[in-house]
Amino acid sequence: MFFSLVSGQVDVKEFESKIGTTAASFLKIGVGPRALAMGEAFVAAADGPSAAFWNPAGLGRMRGTTISASTTDWIMDLRLHSAVASTKLQGPGVVAFSVNTLQMDEIEVTTLRSPDGDGTYASASDVMIGLSYARPLTDVFVVGVTGKWIYNNVANETASATAIDIGTLFSPGWRGIRIGMSLTNFGTKMRLDGRDLNAEHDVDPLLGLDEPAKSRLRTRDWDLPTAFRLGMAINVVETSNLLWTATADAIHATDNVERANFGSEITIGQVKLRAGGGVNYDQMKLGFGGGVTQKLGGRNVTIDYAAVTLSPFDLIQSIAFTVGL
Asked: Which class in CATH covers the domain with range 2-105+119-324?
């Protein structure tokens, strides 16, 4: 079913590349330092608030109420901010509300007539707002779904779309093995519209007898970056003092080639150390980081940090704060 949904959004043509042919590319940026440090091999390891962005089924076994916020210093002075609030319902299931935004500073507008700037400024931003629900169907199987609204703003043009994420998590129990699957960003198309599309058009400028006619530029629809992930997590070492978890993901995206991610997380008491990377990327991609959990005022407070090398760009850094209420 997952593969059928994914292939339904792909216009299959022999030798045709789909790289760079989708809108809302910010949805492809990894959310949360834990996932980034583990090389984004996270679909089966997602078991905290950030699961809302990776595999909504990972929310299904959470307890109580949790609030998490993260920020990532992305490339080219872009900043990715995200927040999730989740709570266990009285009945079976967990519900979560999530927000993900990509922001950039304003830049001066330049034109052919004013190559040094015309005195005005423009910016661009992206927003995703999601509502997730997850619940265990059996002792070993959890399902989750996220409905989300996506909004894009570029100068005076805007576009919006709706999409869903579907995820499952299977945990048979042996060595803590977990098998996760997720289909993300399956939804409607996006089309930019705004006042900058208004224009004047002279049918025959050489003749010079007619007045320029009022016209409007027409933009086209663009697909969302739909992706299918299949992953596994397993406890390689499990003792009273040490837990070492290894993860691996395979990703099939409608706008890119097939890729694979690998990650590792070592837990020693309340401290976690993480590392990971990916293969078949254009740039070398390696992540590392860690986290620590402490009780403050009777509540568990977790701080996570990640750094990712993405050549030839500068080091990407991400930090998150999570509070269990």
From this structure: mainly beta
